[in-house]
Amino acid sequence: MTTFSQWMADIQQRTESALDRALPAADIAPTRLHEAMRYAVLGGGKRVRPLLVHAGGQLSGAAAERLDRVSCALEMIHAYSLVHDDMPCMDDDVLRRGKPTVHVQFDEATALLVGDALQTQAFQHVADAPIADDPQRQIAMIRQLAQATGSRGMAGGQAIDLAAVGLQLSLAELEFMHIHKTGALIRASINLGVQCGRSLSDEQMASLDHVGKVIGLLFQVVDDILDAEADTATLGKTAGKDAANDKPTYVSLLGVTRARQLAEEMCQDALDHLAPFGDAGQRLAELARFIVHRQF
Fold first, then answer.
1. 49: buried, middle or exposed (CB in 10 Å: 19+, 13-18, 0-12)?
2. pLDDT tens digits for 205-247?
3. If we measure between CA atoms, which residue out of 138, 113, 152, 142 comes closest to residue 35?
4. pTM
5. Mutual orientation of helices 183-195 and 154-163 as an angle, nearest 10°?
6. Residue 96: what are its φ and ψ, rounded to 5°?
7. In 3D, which of 182, 173, 169, 209 has the Cα closest to residue 291?
8. How far, in Å, CA of 216 to CA of 269, rounded?
9. What is the pLDDT of residues 51-97, one digit of tens each?
């Protein structure tokens, strides 16, 4: 079996190649929009969601080509959310993945259209070819992706986040916000990856859904810690933005030490729920450990 680092590098590379094929070429009209879409998606990012998709797919013996297609859709949606999040009307940031944000590199109107186009391109991509054995399951998977993206998922979490600026949230309120804002797509990544293969039992799916929820929150806790402690060069985005914008975070609520403890507890919770899956859950377990100890 390949090492975790080699497996991760392989998935990241195949995702990059798949995204390159999935996105419209830059020389196809409208060329500026297509160039900006490719700028937003390609050549950067940790590809955490594709890694989770492929790790979930290992639990159900899913075909790699199906997992690539789902991974591309999730990355397009994730990239669109970052493009819009960086715009002046939202977080107003000038750096993303170590390079100028889309509205800085191009312009605000183009950035807005890039987000719109990437979101719709994502849904076209998972509708264009089979990602499940049963067409009804594929429809259900697309519905699940839509829910994770919309007002009851990522977009809703972002709305809560904007409304919470300057407020002191409770731990339960902060968790509710991030289950939607960050956690919804991460949770969907595992679930959709599993559903690309053979059916698992309801009990197994419930356990994996819990793992997805926990890893989604874990990712955000670590993100808050890194925003408080890492520098801009390491992060590839502006460090300290949360504190500067008076945003409620796990660090502002709990402090760094307790936030780190919470991250470790969440990681252990995920590992406990993965233990019954044995070797099939190894990659997901390794990803949970990677996320809790990541430095960028």
1. buried
2. 999 999 999 999 999 999 999 988 877 766 666 766 777 678 8
3. 113
4. 0.95
5. 170
6. -150, 125
7. 182
8. 12
9. 999 999 999 999 999 999 999 999 999 999 999 999 999 999 999 98
Burial 122-138 (b: 16+ CB within 10 A, else e): bbebbeeeebbeeeeeb
Q: What is the DSSP letter of 44?
A: -
Distance, C-alpha 58 to centroid of its chain: 19
**Which residues have CB under 8 Å from 157's CB, separation 6+?**
177, 178, 179, 180, 181, 182, 183, 184
Please say if the pLDDT value at position 44 is more than 90: no
Contacts of 5 (CB under 8 A, 6+ apart): none
DSSP category for residue 278: G
* DSSP state for residue 95 in the 8-state scheme: E
Give me the residue label for tokens 């796990």: 250
